[in-house]
Amino acid sequence: MGDVVETCFNSEILYLTEGVDRAIKRAKSAAGHRCEIIGKKAAVHKKIDLDGHHLFDRRSRPDLADLPENILVLVPDLHREFHGWKSGACTPKDVLVFIEAARGDLFDPVNSRDMKRLRALTHRLQRFQSEREGQKVRYHRS
């Protein structure tokens, strides 16, 4: 009996892990393999590392862990800096507060491309926050 439970448990862990990996891969592709905050993109001949940051963290909202919409693509340094600034559970709203309070320097107010990126990011994160904040937990399998 214990072996069956362990096998089922391991199968579910693998299913969830693969789902998260697929979501991150899809989010990176949707973002054009570009950091969604600073806009840095890999050149044709030079690849850059990118992380997938869960807007609603995986512990507090595991039901959203495998949704590409819940992934923000970031350069690793900025991702680490965010988690150094905000430990524990996080939401899309926290990313916006981080940008405003800690890293406003990333957006030049006279650069129209920066401001367009900031407006699009703000709109996306505010919309996702309001759509998912009070939502019931969604289940992975039927």
Give a description of the structure.
With 142 residues, the protein is mainly alpha-helical. The chain has one domain. Helix content is 49%, strand content 6%. The chain has 4 helices and 2 strands. It has helices spanning 2-30, 76-85, 92-101, 112-132, and strands at 51-54, 71-74. The protein has a two-stranded antiparallel sheet. It is globular. The relative contact order is 0.14. The mean pLDDT is 87.
Distance N to C terminus: 24 Å
- Average pLDDT, to the nearest integer? 87
Number of domains: 1
Structural class: mainly alpha
The tally of helices reads 4
Proportion of beta-strand residues = 5-15%
Low-pLDDT stretches: none
Helix content: 40-55%
Q: What about the largest sheet?
A: 2 strands, antiparallel
| Overall geometry | globular
Q: Largest sheet, order of strands side by side?
A: 1-2
Order of helices and strands: HEEHHH
Task: Name its key features.
single chain; globular; mainly alpha
What layout of secondary structure does this protein have?
Elements: H1 2-30, E1 51-54, E2 71-74, H2 76-85, H3 92-101, H4 112-132
Antiparallel strand pairs: 1-2
Helix pairs in contact: 3-4
Structure in a nutshell:
The protein is mostly helical and 142 residues long. Helices cover 49% and strands 6% of the residues.
